[in-house]
Amino acid sequence: MSTDTIERAVDQRTYASYARPLLWRVIATREFAVLALLVAVFLYSRSSIEGFDGPLTLYFLFGRSLPIMLLALPMTLVIITGEIDLSVASTMALTGAVLGIAFTEWDLPFVMAMVVAVGVGLACGLLNGILIAYVRLPSLAVTIGTLALFRGLAEGFLGTDTIKGFPEKWTDLAKQATSEGGSYPIVLIPFVVLAVAFGLLLHFSSFGRGVYEIGLNDEAARFTGVDIARTKLVLFMLTGAVAGLAGVYQALYAGVIRSDSAIHLELQVIAAVLLGGVSIFGGRGTLPGVIAGVLLIAVLNSAMRLDGVRDDVTDIIIGCLLVASVIAPTLLTWVSGLARGRVRRTTDHPSTATAPPTPSK
């Protein structure tokens, strides 16, 4: 391992920022900026867009965005390691197709059909994990390939057909509110449980520390005893399993299964994760920031839909936010470096005007 590599790894782990006041350390973060932007967009939408301040706004906002919220949880850990998974939306489509076929054609009990569908999602994640962690293929190339593979399998199973007729108790459960006339769907409860579980895994466990170490420097992580291959395999399997759960929920919430469901959803998931402060280069990010990023995209989608904005315009705005979230850290680092260099030059070369006078002979 070269000296430059070690210096970069050490530089990323310095604690100089902790010399600043606690309030400043909280405010001067990307996570706080995303949270502030979320509050500003929400308040502006409530005051300016007709219908956004209605009693069911939050209910539909959370209900429609729950798949993105679910997928963002494991995607956060994957991107922190420096990898990426573009096949999550196709995995959702495939698990939904398997759910419909297992229930209508294989005559499985609906609970068993859901288990089979989530198992298919887990198998998809296992395939990605083996190719990336053990065969050591680039995650971008692998998941682009499996994106097409899983979507093609879903289209092969369903074609142009749609599957309906799920048990009403399950479709009603997917749409049920926490109380009579409540503003929150009941499915937020399992999401909160999963979010807490992933938060504990990432921020309060040795496994999570290994995830950050892999993203900072995988060679250094190997020397500290982190099993890189196993960690990545577990993360991609978790991503596949959660995508299976999201596919089941999407089918129940919509009440219909089609092969083109969740198309382009992976872009919104990645945008939410990067907006939430996770570095695309790995080694940095927090789960609370990601959840704020997911909610920001959900609020934007809901507000622009109610305002009559076309979907392509919405995609353009989200794409611009994604580009800005990637460019902003590099730009801020460059500006900060220029400022430090200017201060250093001023210190090393004081002005002659402040120099002490030369004593006379």
From TrEMBL:
CDD domains xrefs: TM_PBP1_transp_AraH_like
Major location category of this protein: membrane
Keyword NADP attached: no
Membrane-spanning residues: 22-44, 56-80, 86-103, 110-135, 186-212, 233-256, 262-280, 287-304, 316-335
Keywords: Cell inner membrane, Cell membrane, Membrane, Transmembrane, Transmembrane helix, Transport
The keyword Transcription is annotated on this UniProt entry: no
InterPro entries given in the database record: ABC_transp_permease
Residue ranges of coiled coil: none
Subcellular location: Cell membrane
Annotated membrane topology: Multi-pass membrane protein
Protein name as annotated: Autoinducer 2 import system permease protein LsrD
Organism: Nocardioides plantarum
